[in-house]
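Two quick folds needed for the group meeting slides. Do the first one here.
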Amino acid sequence: IGQIIEVASIVGSIVATLIAGLIVYLMVRPPRHVRQRRKAEKRGEIRIETDPADAEQLWRLVDRMDLRLEVLERALADQVERPAIGTREREQSLAPVEDRDSGRKE
């Protein structure tokens, strides 16, 4: 009887694991329309059509990103070419102050 219980518990845990795996698979898989569209795209049946207004908006976004990149490159180039202003003052402000009371009890 003990061996039958052991075998039943092993089989039960395997079945429970398989059921849990199936539930997780069903929860994370993409919806049916997405799977069908991907299959059709692989076979070459569907061509993705873009709206001209969407394409124009995308190009405006790309142009704006290019401008921001240029500004960032100029800022970095200026920072590399000349040393940072006030580095000595900044170093002094970060130095520990020895004569001021920190409020800690010793």
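Then this one, please, same format:
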Amino acid sequence: VNPIFSRQIRRRGGAVISCGDGNCHAPGGSGGRFTLGANEDSNFLAASNFVDRGDPDASLLLVEPTQDDVSPSPVAAFHGGGEIFPTRDDECYKAIRAWISNSGACGTCVAVPNSSICGYP
């Protein structure tokens, strides 16, 4: 799912961003504990820290970019990047969820959707 983190996705309100943008989850950005860089192995480890394998929909990796509208959670923090996934039917949401459900075994075992169908229309 690393390609999802580096692609442009339209969030609520129309802004087009990438999780790996300098102001977001890039090193030195404002992404808090979830930092993405050029090293895919490091990104895998970072993403793995925000998953709940027993309940994929409760994973902070999915809950926070939905602002709790899609997946309410008492442990989610405010996602400064705004709402990224409008519903659980969003193709990027489903790809990340499938990766979590498959125990995050690898970064290429889940089909990554075309970026034009991820995020808000």
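Slide caption for protein two: The mean pLDDT is 77.
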